[in-house]
Design a protein that fits this description.
The chain has helices at about 1-15, 20-25, 30-35, 40-50, 55-60, 65-70, 75-80, 85-95, 100-105, 125-135, 140-145. By secondary structure, it is mainly α. Helix 2 (about 20-25) packs across helix 3. The longest helix has 14 residues, at about 85-95. It is elongated.
C-alpha cells in the first residue's frame, strides 16, 4: 500500500517526490513516509489544499470512500446551489447536444393550462392586498389626458 499511496499522491499532485509533497504541507518527509501505510485524513486534506485538489475525489482514489458514497447527496446540493443562469445554460447545452429528455423538448400541452393564469399562481394575501390597493389608487393616466373634441 505504501507504494500505491506514494504513486497516487505523486500522480495527483504532479510532485516528483514525497519529500516535495511533505515540504508543501510543512511536514517532515520522514513523518509523511511513515504515514503512507495508514495515511491520516488530515494529512490527505492538507495535501489536497496545498495542491488545490478536490478532496472528495482524492478520498475515492485512495480508498477512503466509494464513488457511490462520494456522489450521494451531492447532486441535490449542487442543484440547490446552482443559479438560474447555470441551470438554464445546462439545459440549453443538453438541447443543443441532442441529449435533452422529451420532458424538455416536447411541446407543452396547452389544453392542461387554464384560461385564468391567476389560478396557477401561489399568491399570498399580502400580495393580493397590495394588488387591490394599487388598482384603487388615483386616476388612470388615460382618464387625465385632454381629449380632442
Amino acid at each position: 500500500m505504501d507504494n500505491d499511496m506514494d504513486l497516487i499522491l505523486k500522480t495527483a499532485t504532479g510532485a516528483r517526490s514525497m519529500r516535495a509533497i511533505a515540504t508543501a504541507i510543512g511536514m517532515e518527509p520522514s513523518t509523511l513516509n511513515r504515514q503512507l501505510r495508514d495515511l491520516p485524513v488530515r494529512t490527505l486534506v492538507a495535501i489536497c489544499r496545498a495542491y488545490g485538489l478536490p478532496v472528495v475525489p482524492m478520498f475515492v482514489k485512495v480508498g477512503y470512500i466509494t464513488a457511490e458514497e462520494a456522489s450521494s447527496g451531492m447532486l441535490e446540493q449542487a442543484l440547490a446551489n446552482a443559479s438560474d443562469a447555470e441551470l438554464m445554460t445546462e439545459t440549453l447545452r443538453r438541447v443543443q447536444a441532442g441529449k435533452a429528455s422529451p420532458t424538455i423538448t416536447d411541446p407543452v400541452d396547452v389544453s392542461a393550462l387554464t384560461d385564468d393564469a391567476d389560478d396557477n399562481l401561489d399568491v399570498t394575501n399580502e400580495v393580493r392586498s397590495s394588488y387591490g390597493r394599487a388598482a384603487q389608487k388615483g386616476k388612470r393616466k388615460a382618464d387625465q389626458l385632454p381629449t380632442a373634441d
